[in-house]
Amino acid sequence: MNKIEHIGIAVKDLEKSNALFASLFGEAHYKIEEVASEGVKTSFFKSGPNKIELLEASNPDSPIAKFIEKKGEGIHHIAFAVDNIKEEIKRLQNEGFTVLNETPKKGADNKLVAFLHPKTTNGVLIELCQEIEE
Predict the structure, then answer these.
(1) Residue 1: its pLDDT value, please?
(2) What's the rounded Cα separation, in Å, for the pair 20 and 14?
(3) Which residues of the chain fall below pLDDT 50?
(4) Count of CB atoms situated within 10 Å of the CB of 127
(5) Segment 25-57, tens digit of pLDDT
């Protein structure tokens, strides 16, 4: 794992949260993107070298909707940049971590993503991210 790629925050209302975080960071989001396969609409902010991803459920059955229903708004995941997501998945499985999706899938912000089950990471959902090279 190279660095923290971003921190994901689950929100009920993306428009209101965009205004809040724009005030917090002193500048507007740089991207809004929907990932229909995950039932989520995302918005990205930069703060110095760091990125924050706001996540709003786009349907009531999505993982984000379920997360907010169970835990409320707040930090949803921490994402780490990796050079080779398939090799990192194998390495982490060999270390005993449970991978939620063994085959990486297309996520937001031009990334291939995979997630580690929070039960194997002290309650924190970990996302692995690899830039998609076109």
Answers:
(1) 87
(2) 10
(3) none
(4) 22
(5) 999 999 999 999 899 999 999 988 999 999 999
